[in-house]
Amino acid sequence: MAEVLGVFEQAVLVAVVHLGGDGYGRTILKEVEARLGRDVTASAVYTTLERLEDKGLLASRAGEGTPARGGRAKRHFAITRPGVRALNASRAVSQNIWRGFAWPLKGRA
Amino acid sequence: MTPHPPLWAQSLAGFVTPARHRDGILGDLLEEYHEVQHPRRGEAGADAWYVRQVLLFLWRAARWWGLGLGALIVARDAIDVYAPTNDYHLRSAWTTYSAVALYSACGVRAGWYYRRVLSGTVVGITSAIIASAVSLLVPLLFLHAIAGRPELSEILDVPVPFLVLFGAIFSSLGAGIARGGGALRGVTWG
User: Which residues of chain B neighbour A24 with C-beta distances below 8 Å?
Assistant: First the structure.
């Protein structure tokens, strides 16, 4: 069974999928912020990217450097097959949890 | 002249970003600085933004070590307050050796992860600062128990410079051990 991911990990993976393999740290960070609707720190995003890569859910490759980057190469991220499976599994779990409820939930207290 | 973030912050960033993604991260920060933060906030604002990003990397690197060491010191204080003894030597030895072990492990981990011996030193010093803050602030909750017991007054006298020096030495040693292990395995260091 594929691994079920946390919300932040899902947001990062979905951002990578959305950017279609051309995403790098900065663009992924902005996409995650847009999807979560809040500011996120660079350290949180990069740590998550590294963890997902260590788990084999993401792959990365070095890109080009530019003068604005001080000549430092970009690192592009793309989702792997296990990453797709993990995202699908996480989505399925989430849908399963909400099965039988009408959205938005009405308060009963 | 091209604006650039403070050089000290750029150097510090090089010590607290993981070796594998260092170029990508430092390049991203610089790109954001030049293309968004500097035009939007001006030089001082952009510098502040950059420093904040670096400090967040530093905090992420050191927080659990610092909080762990702080908890160790606070636990020792609490034991002294609520279970007094006539001989504090054994407790002192236990606290000291535990701190040495924590700092050394912190240095090994930081040195290995960041592939720099000085990363161990930087993370160790930061951990010591966090631990000092914790061990200075938490005992304030025990003030009622400490009052009127002069033998416990040193609880409020946290030796911050000693903790920092101690942290720098043992975390550097730990990072040096990691480097030695890396050399044996043919790992490239920065």
Answer: 24, 28
